[in-house]
Amino acid sequence: EVQLVESGGGLVQPGRSLRLSCAASGFTLEDYAMHWVRQAPGKGLEWVSGISWDGGNVAYADSVKGRFSISRDNSKNSLFLQMDSLRAEDMALYYCARPAAGFFYYYMDVWGKGTTVTVSS
Amino acid sequence: EIVLTQSPGTLSLSPGDRATLSCRASQSVSSSYLAWFQQKPGQAPRLLIYGAASRATGIPDRFSGSGSGTDFTLTISSLEPEDFAVYYCQQYGGSFTFGGGTKVEIK
Question: Helix, strand, or coil here: B10?
Answer without folding.
Answer: strand
